[in-house]
Design brief:
Length: about 220
């Protein structure tokens, strides 16, 4: 299937699940060349996700100058020493997960007079190899980012453990979002976006189901 057909099929499935929910599809373009992604850009889709600052810079800086409505989402772990570049290129950061990083992003976006939108990443399964804060740290961390640093935190993000039980985790993160009063939810990937939409995903991050297998 072509990229456009795959994209439209996913869009329709999301609509069928919940026509009222305006779920944004983030086309995760990591590892794919611009040549490969281009049909979707030409088609007019505006939201793309990358997980590495350097790769994102190479691929997107020139394009973003030409198409000012393009939005780029950082979905991978971000080290604070890359915050400056991240602020230059991204519009959304889904992986806010430490005070050090939050402070650095705050400082850098002031310098650049930018105001990015942020998701706090939660490590729902306390998995060592994954980023994200622990559930019991959420309230303090949210207050720190929101009240002290005045970052525009719009919701929570998670990559649930791969244990065949995504619904349990989607329910959990949706509850947490309600508890702290946030509206947006970044959950759902190629394998589970239909379920994620049932739990109120405002942003799904879909790579391989649109662009094909990654090497
Ligand atoms: C790669 C990636 C995705 C997309 O994964 P697919 O299974 O290809 O849809 C989503 N979220 C994050 C954080 C990723 O790193």
């Amino acid at each position: 299937m072509s990229i456009i057909n795959s994209f439209n099929k996913i869009k329709q499935e999301i609509k069928d699940n919940d026509p009222t929910l305006q779920t944004e599809i983030i086309a995760v373009s990591k590892t794919f060349s611009l040549e490969h992604i281009k049909p979707l850009i030409d088609y007019g889709h505006l939201h793309y996700g990358e997980n590495k600052v350097q790769e994102a810079e190479k691929k997107w800086i020139a394009l973003k100058k030409n198409i000012s409505s393009l939005k780029l989402h950082m979905i991978g772990q971000l080290q604070s020493n890359k915050a400056k570049k991240a602020v230059e290129i991204f519009d959304f950061i889904h992986s806010l997960d430490s005070e050090k990083l939050a402070k650095e992003l705050c400082k850098r976006q002031k310098e650049k007079e930018k105001n990015l939108k942020y998701f706090i990443q939660i490590n729902l399964g306390s998995e060592e190899q994954k980023g994200g804060i622990q559930i019991n740290e959420l309230k303090n961390f949210y207050n720190f980012c929101n009240k002290e640093l005045k970052l525009s935190v719009i919701g929570l993000m998670a990559i649930p453990p791969n244990d065949g039980n995504p619904e349990k985790y989607f329910q959990k993160i949706s509850d947490l979002n309600n508890e702290i009063g946030l509206k947006k939810l970044s959950i759902g990937m190629s394998n589970d976006y239909k379920l994620a939409v049932k739990y109120g995903a405002s942003h799904v991050r879909i790579g391989s189901a649109i662009f094909g297998k990654r090497n």
